[in-house]
Amino acid sequence: MAGQQFQYDDNGNTFFYFLTSFVGLIVIPATYYLWPRDQNAEQLRLKSLRRVHGRCLWYRLRLMKSQQSIVPTLKKAVLLFGWAVFLLLAYKVSKLDREYQEYNPYEVLNLDPGASSSEIKKQYRVLSLKHHPDKGGDEATFMRIAKAYAALTNEESRKNWEMFGNPDGPGATSFGIALPAWIVDQKNSMLVLLVYGLAFMVILPVVVGTWWYRSIRYSGDQILINTTQLFMHFMYKTPNMNMKRLAMVLTAAFEFDPRSNKEATIRPTDNIEVPQLIRELGNINVKKKEPPFCYPYSLKARVLVLAHLARMDISEELEEDQRFVVRKSPSLLQEMINVGCQLTMMANSRGGFHAPRLVTIENCMKLTQMIVQGLQESKSPLLQLPHFEEDHLRYCISKKYKVRSLQDLVSLKDSDRRSMLRFLGEEKYDEVMAVLGSFPHITMDTKLQVLDDEDSNNITAGSIVTVTVTLNRKRMADMFEKEQESTPCPGEEAANTEEAQADANKAKTKVWQNKSKGAKKTAKSKKKKLTKKKAAPPPAKVKQANGNVAGNEVAAAAAAAAAVTAAKEDEDEASDKGSESDEGEANKDSPSERDEDSDKQSDTEADEMGGDDEEEWEALQQSIQRRERALLETKSKVTHPVYSLYFPEEKQEWWWLYIADRRDQTLVSMPYHVCTLKDTEEVELKFPAPSKTGNYQYSVILRSDSYMGLDLIKPLKLEVHEAKAMLDNHPQWDIPDTEEEDEEQEDSDGIEESEDDDEDND
Asked: From start to end residue, where is composition biased (Basic and acidic residues) (predicted)?
């Protein structure tokens, strides 16, 4: 009876198959993910950024790191060694002989297939005499010969061979284990058990436990949970937080504590250098005994951040620690913004405590800009540019130029700009213009809607308002020529103002005309007659004949008289037209004409309503498709490198977009972190409309997380109407009583008719 048989690989051949597969599963993915990227491409990218970002700290550090690092070489060496082992094992496997061969008795007897029985018997005698054990032959060979002879001569053996491939019938199924036999040898049992215990009872639990312990200490944004709780405590305690207090809370993060983060360090020289920096900085609340602000790690981090904002020179050891603190600060400030938003939502939903003020959240955003640019809040945004010093600002803010922002510098004419920046040489001036040209110039368009509603433009109390904000990003360099082209001459300005006034008057008349849709024809006819009558020649002749002051007075009097007569004629015409219209209505053939006119009007109104519904439906479908695309596609967060002279890491250009009530100092919509704005980006901000009707004034605010002085604020007017009353019974479900009675009568009549038919049949 067939069975199963398990056996270990004595020769180790099967084990090579397993080993080859295992090494291949490691080497192939590791090569894809860990092989160093093309260093030439990175060098070319850095070379293209040299003209603009050559003076940035992160750029110089990146060049030094790429020249000194040997990590890519080590990675290549390890991966090449793995591939060598894999190819060697594959070659070894290809040279292994296959153990399984199909049983063929003709080959055992050295006969051709289809030999006759006499030939089989004759060959068997010859081989048995040669290999019989009594004649000095091999017993195993003789047994194979006897088995082959029986398979060809015995009917039962031949049938088993033809059916199962074996003269003895179905044999046991053999399973080979891809491990060498010495593993289960009794001599090696203790060693194998020790290895298994060490691997699965010591190494694996330690690795998993270490990973789990580290992962539960961090949030999804790789911020320590203790730091998030610290931020929540102080933002709840101090809803209105100024910049000095905010810097203290930021530097109290546990990321800067060596007990919580191994990257943070406390050096013996800090006891000498940190107090010296404190004396140079001045008042930084050193004597404050509130924990954790009084801890050494918090005090050191605060001093390093303030020294970075003041652009002070420090020692090399402290500079390394300062880079670590500055590098961590933007992500920590983003976590503070998230915590502030969470507390705001909790206050709006539950109540019972004060949410963080808008000033606190905006100060977090401003502090991020300051840290990235290494500037204090009171400093000019022009100091973000290279070669600009405090002494040079007096040339910019003079009465002649009055340049206080980057936009003012862009709007200047090239000649004025060159004369103002004459303290720079030609080479430095070109570098400043290249850097300024790389700065972003954002335009923002807003659209207010109430989606999933019949009237999307009508905002009712308590409805969910959707503000679709379209952001277009261009470079400042694109604005240079436009600003120059858009500055007209004085004569052109006067002409443009006259044209603008004429266009405004035309627009006003068009709006006035559109108000009375029913009286379009009468208005047109009146206008034609008025133009004919007003174009009277006598006043014009008087004006032409008398060009002096007296002539002007005469012309004015004549024009007034003509206006009076024209007004009287208009009244007469209006009365005549009124009588004609009355007669026309009275002389209509029948009431059916009136019905036809009303039907036509209702049809036109229905067509207009249908067109509006189709437009709203298309807009709704487009918004749904945009949401689906936004959910499915994953955009890269690599936008544009930020120009920052003192930030130690390459920073991408990101933005915050939100709606705020600046009068009440509250957030209306939560800040949306725009991380994918390369050229154009569309963002939907949602918020509930106020519960009371009236007019509200909000602001759509776009803030950069990298640049100072490039924020945008756009007003948003909100007119809230009263919500429609909910219908208890919708008209489409109301069935008139008369219809129900008619149906009951029909049913009863049908029953009576059927009874009468039955009686007739009887």
From this structure: 575-603
Q: Is residue 706 part of a domain?
A: yes
Same domain, 144 and 52: no
Which of 135, 141, 180 has the alpha carbon at shortest distance from 7? 180
The total of other beta-carbon atoms located within 10 Å of residue 150's CB is 18
At 614, the amino acid letter reads E
Contact 640, 48 (CB under 8 A): no
Per the CB < 8 A criterion, the answer to whether 646 and 374 are in contact is yes
**Can you tell me which residue has the tokens 């036999």?**
181
Alpha-carbon distance of 197 to 191, in angstroms, equals 10
- pLDDT grade for 652, boundaries at 50, 70 and 90: very high
Distance between CA atoms of residues 279 and 441, nearest Å? 40
Instruction: Report pLDDT for 500.
Output: 43
Note whether 368 and 275 are same-domain residues: yes
Q: pLDDT: is 347 or 745 the higher one?
A: 347
**How much is the pLDDT for 108?**
80
The whole-angstrom separation of Cα 472 and Cα 681 is 7
Contacts of 672 (CB under 8 A, 6+ apart): 656, 657, 658, 683, 685
Residue 627 in tokens:
């949401």
Rounded Cα–Cα distance for residues 703 and 244 (Å) = 20
CATH code: domain of residue 355? 1.10.3380.10
Res 616: pLDDT:
62
Q: What is the CA radius of gyration of the chain?
A: 46
**Residue 285 within a domain:** yes
| C-alpha distance from residue 2 to each of 55, 164, 171 (Å) | 81, 11, 5
Q: Do 370 and 391 sit in the same domain of this protein?
A: no
Beta strand extents in 165-227 (DSSP E only): 173-180
Distance between CA atoms of residues 188 and 391, nearest Å: 82
DSSP class of residue 581 equals: H
Burial zone of 327 (CB within 10 Å; 0-12 exposed, 13-18 middle, 19+ buried): middle
Residue 696: inside a domain? yes
> Which residues on adjacent β-strands are paired with residue 5?
174
Element holding 659 (H helix, E strand) = strand 655-661
- Domain co-membership, 356 together with 316: yes
State how beta strands 4-9 and 173-180 pair.
parallel
DSSP 434-475: HHHHHSEEEEEEEEEE-SSSSSTT--BTT-EEEEEEEEEEEE
Count: domains in the chain: 6
What are the two backbone dihedrals, phi and then psi, of residue 717, each rounded to the nearest 5 degrees? Answer: -95, 135
Range of 429's domain?
Answer: 380-438
Q: Is the peptide bond before 292 cis (omega within 30 degrees of 0)?
A: yes
Is residue 23 located within the same domain as residue 115?
Answer: no
pLDDT of residue 723: 78
Helix pair 426-438, 39-53: axis angle to 10 deg: 110
pLDDT band of 493, cuts 50, 70, 90: very low
The rounded distance, in Å, linking the Cα atoms of 464 and 452 is 9
The 10 Å Cβ neighbour count of residue 82 is: 17
Contact 644, 374 (CB under 8 A): yes
The tens digit of pLDDT for each residue in 311-334 reads 999 999 899 999 999 999 999 999
